[in-house]
Amino acid sequence: MLDMNWIRENQELVRNTALWKRVDLALDELLEWDDKRRVLRRDTEQHRAERNTLTKEIEQLLRRGEHAAGEQIKEQVRALNSLLGTLEADLAEAERRCGELQLLVPNPVSADTPIGKDDSENVELRRSGTLPEFGFAPRDHVELGELHGILDIPRGVKAGGPRSYVLKGAGLDLHLAVQRLALDVLTGRGFTAMDVPVIVRPEALERTGFFPGGRDQTYELNGENRWLAGTSEVSLVSLYSDETVELDEPMRLAGMSACFRREVGSAGRDVRGLYRVHQFSKIEQVVFCRNNPDESEQMLQEILANAEHILQLLELPYRIVAVCSGDMSLKTHKQYDVETWMPSRDAFGETHSASNLHDFQARRSNIRYRDGHGRLQYCHTLNNTAVATPRILIPLLENHQQEDGSIYIPAALRKYMNGLERLEAPQV
User: Fold this and answer.
1) Strands, E, within 301-366: which ranges?
2) Using one digit for the tens of pLDDT, what is the confidence trace for 303-341?
3) 284 is catalytic
């Protein structure tokens, strides 16, 4: 968690950050509990020291045969033990309350983060690619998927309920192809590919900053005290909790996993098709680097460039936006979103999110390294999507559709599609 002394010394910044991020933070209550904790720690330590001194005195008296005097001091020790029992219980409660409230203190945002209330105030930085101009009435990805027999939403709903789907045939091939492409790009750039657990302990979600605030978005395995992760970031960071890592070079990891999100609060939004589903697959970039703002900013630009390169290989138009404070999570210091053009929405839709967390996760997870002077430092962590599917199939199908209903397959995907250059439209 953010250091309590730092919080005390930067109260105005903490209050402003909570306001900017729309976090309900009871800072005054946290400070009051911390005051109580400090007093209780002091009193507890003093009384323990007094008890230890008296215990030694009793031993000396008994060795000298002064049993009556020893019994009198034993009464004092018993009274101290009773008092310590109360103090220790009060201290445990103060520690618990401080811990709960401290978990809600948001990570400060970067100086260049736009201050805004929600995603409507994100700031577009640049665009890449040309938006398609159709000389015909384009189909959306659901119509295209049904036309080609590669997507079956009704049967997905029959089996899994709302926001479920089935990919089949060439639809599954495309789903796997974009993941294979992303993995090959990342491993070629020094990332270690990993298949990681998606069933995780609650402390993994807390240490990475997804809990306590994100519980309503996360599926719990009842009776197991385990949860389904919404991103492999949770597991990738947690693999190194309570460790001292080597960071002569940044540690670059690429996690491949299924992901699960409840999408609470999204009722009525993006209900058609594949945009907002409960289960999906993702290749996630996670980076550990030294506690140096310049170095972590450089790594943020690197993982953003990786995502852009993959979209360029997919021949898709996209834009980069700077995410404003009100659209950022508790844990994020700086964030870019990559939004890809989706013709059916007549708008760009988020497909990637690149974040620099500074040492926020490392503090919670106790992940450190030794600097050039041998001192232990908390590292910086970063993450970004490489590709998330089936959402990426929306722009892939829609942007590359042809007037006859066929779908162009980008050259970079063809080696994963047995050389197929297009999905031919079925003859009616």
Assistant:
1) 318-322, 334-342, 347-356
2) 999 999 999 999 999 999 999 999 999 999 999 999 999
3) no
Say what the alpha-carbon torsion angle 154, 159, 160, 161 is, to the nearest 10 degrees: 50
For residue 370, indicate whether it is catalytic.
no
Tokens of 93: 């409660």
pLDDT tens, residue by residue, 77-122: 898 999 999 999 999 999 999 999 999 999 999 999 999 999 999 9
Catalytic residue from among 353, 355, 365, 406 = 353
C-alpha span between 363 and 208 (Å, rounded)? 9
Q: Give the pairing type, strands 376-378 and 219-221.
A: unpaired
Nearest Cα neighbor of 291 from 283, 299, 303 is 299
8 noted as active-site residue: no
Instruction: Check 350, 364, 365, 398 and give the catalytic one.
Output: 350
- Which member of 139, 261, 363, 368 is catalytic? 261
The pair of structure tokens assigned to 380 is 């910086």
| Four-CA torsion 205, 211, 217, 219, nearest 10 degrees | 50
Distance (Å, whole) CA 408 – CA 401: 6
365 given a catalytic annotation: no
- Active-site residue (options: 139, 163, 207, 391): 391
261 is catalytic: yes
Q: Which of 359, 355, 356 is nearest to 380 (CA)?
A: 359
